[in-house]
Amino acid sequence: MARKNEVRAQVALRSSAGTGTVYRTTKNRRNTPDRLVLRKYDPKIRAVVEFKESR
Question: Which of the 8 DSSP states describes residue 27?
Answer without folding.
Answer: E
